[in-house]
Predict the 3D structure of the following.
Amino acid sequence: METQSSESPVRTAHLPQVTEPRNPGMELDLDWVRAVQVNTSAVERRAATLPGRRSVKKDYQAAWLLKAITLIDLTTLSGDDTVGRVRRLCAKARQPVASATLQTLDMPPITTGAVCVYHDMIETAVDALKGTGIPVAAVSTGFPAGLSPFHLRVAEIEESVKAGAEEIDIVISRRHVLSGDWQALYDEMKAFRVACGDAHVKAILATGELGSLRNVARASLVCMMAGADFIKTSTGKESVNATLPVSLVMIRAIRDYYDRTGYRVGYKPAGGISKAKDALVYLSLIKDELGDRWLEPDLFRFGASSLLGDIERQLEHFVTGAYSAGYRHSMG
């Protein structure tokens, strides 16, 4: 497998709009949407082979893991979030790896891709990240169920943007997908995109609640047609979150959209990705299916918190030959 050298520089976080033209969307093409089919058996077979087919070791593994850190949306979405916890999380985002480890690896400082919080914590996060270039992402539109009144969901986006969020993670209405009302999904997503203004919008499909991989593929396409900058698997609150079959379907929809329109849309798997080895599988899948351009923070993110701790432990093992205790890598 061709992969990034351990000597390659790891880019620090940057705002998505700096490097890639935004997806402007297009008119809803129902013929295209209805023509989308998914061979579930073939997708599941391909996904089942991924963990065993791609393996990187030693210097190469360390390089991939450092890359993965720059792609993490470091997240706290708990009812007991406090100002102190969010500030500690932001400090972790600013320096996710111990300086001594980076020096041993001859690496410059790196940051995570973003910090993701509820609306109420946006101002705290923005203040804590001032001057770093790390964007604040906010979950919105009645997260996680998306069942609040429509005008309140739109207003929530507008308030989060006003508070300083540069990325908005919205949740779609699953009922539109389950009933095949693609026009309603398109109109909803388009309204959310307009409310975001210059802030980038990530469309959370909650794939574990969509019923089939075909629905996942069609919902992905409709959201991109409506102007989504990213499509995202899950809220992290469903019983089934990011999986490899779902990821394969979504990134192939991204590839099809790019082939037809020339616009790149980002991908964010979220929920249940907590081990460094899982991150390596997802990165190799993106490299295989979409290419190296998607291995940058403006086009790929992990929605995670505990993932960073495990990556830190793996890097420390690479440097020292010993695993550190998990409590040494707390997030907040």
User: Anything to note?
Assistant: The CA atoms of residues 138 and 232 lie 14 Å apart. The longest strand covers residues 167-171. Residues 1-18 have pLDDT under 50 and may be disordered. DSSP finds 13 helices and eight strands in the chain.
